[in-house]
């Protein structure tokens, strides 16, 4: 696939206008055009694979911006991924134990790293988080030593904390929630916010306990076999539940679920099962807007009377995995515009990447921070009180950017659903709050295994 597809590139350079890495370094080997040329030479045997080649291939966010503007419709992200998979298969180094755990075992972690890592480090080292979670790939030693902010870990992950309130289901749609590692361990408030909103809108929520990591971190590192194993576990967790929709609250997880069938090009049965899951998947904000009428519900609310009440200025950051990976830009904005007391602000470059990119943030931290700084500067120009984004990776990145920019005391960073739930709660006094319909939970064993 790499050799055939990459030959479609006409070297027009359109990708140079949108690549966040190239727009930071202005290096030819940092843009899709340059990488495709190198891949062609390697595949043709004109150039050997090397550490330098591996580094060049890793300097890609896989954001998809280049493919989106390509006049020849070259599937650049898929080609880059195929190249990474080939490197992984050749080296097999990605199957070794977590670098973080190895450092802990050998006693090479600095006191500074231990102090900064805190509960997150302990949770990883003590297997509080299952090894299948993509968080093992996202939080090596460098994460604790270079960052200014390190997220606290949820010692009681969302999936474990979520309890069935009643076995009686509502008349509304039956919704499955794919939680994802970010919302399960780092941002459980996002998943809890969705639970509260779905209850108010009369939906039945099902949270399979045996769901696992979506597999995206393994996939982008070239470990396709692990990504396939995780995908099959998630298919098994959701396929028999008779759901009307499967929602995700993280754009990265959602984008990967949408593309799940592509993991099984040589396995027709698994591909069909993956297609069924992918067809039912929808970003939570899109489902709330297009299928549950949340705009009408929000517009019926009235902010609590307060002499000090002011309009909350909110800037929305488009995650690449939502804007490009799922084609979603409108529904989050419709949700935010419907919130009483909220003013939605648009930046000059709304599609600008934050520079996270999963393991790109780890292997090329300084470059990631340069891209982030450009995005935070853009966001700060509209003077928001809050920055919201629908991806847990972007939440991590933007929180770091706000801290580095000295804006933590002025700007809050959160998921749009968290903001929506806060606004709803502030509007509803105890006497006006309706009786929430019950929520059911799929009864499975082996949570997080």
Structure, described:
- Helix content is 49%, strand content 7%.
- By secondary structure, it is α/β, with parallel strands linked by helices.
- It has four domains: 2-91, Alpha-helical ferredoxin (Fumarate Reductase Iron-sulfur Protein, Chain B, domain 2); 95-146, no CATH class; 158-290, Up-down Bundle (Glutathione S-transferase Yfyf (Class Pi), Chain A, domain 2); 299-427, Rossmann fold, CATH 3.40.50.
Mean pLDDT across every amino acid position: 82
- Bin the strand percentage: 5-15%
Q: How many H/I helical runs?
A: 25
CATH topology of the largest domain: Glutathione S-transferase Yfyf (Class Pi), Chain A, domain 2
The low-pLDDT segments are 1-7, 93-116, 431-449
Strands ordered across the widest β-sheet: 2-1-3-4
**Number of individual domains:** 4
In the CATH hierarchy, the architecture of the largest domain is: Up-down Bundle
- Give the helix/strand class: alpha/beta
Largest sheet: 4 strands, parallel
Q: Which outline best applies? A: globular
**From the structure provided, what is the oligomeric state, counting identical versus distinct chains?**
single chain
**CATH class of the largest domain, please?**
Mainly Alpha
Radius of gyration: 22 Å
Number of strands: 8
Helix content: 40-55%
Termini separation comes to 33 Å
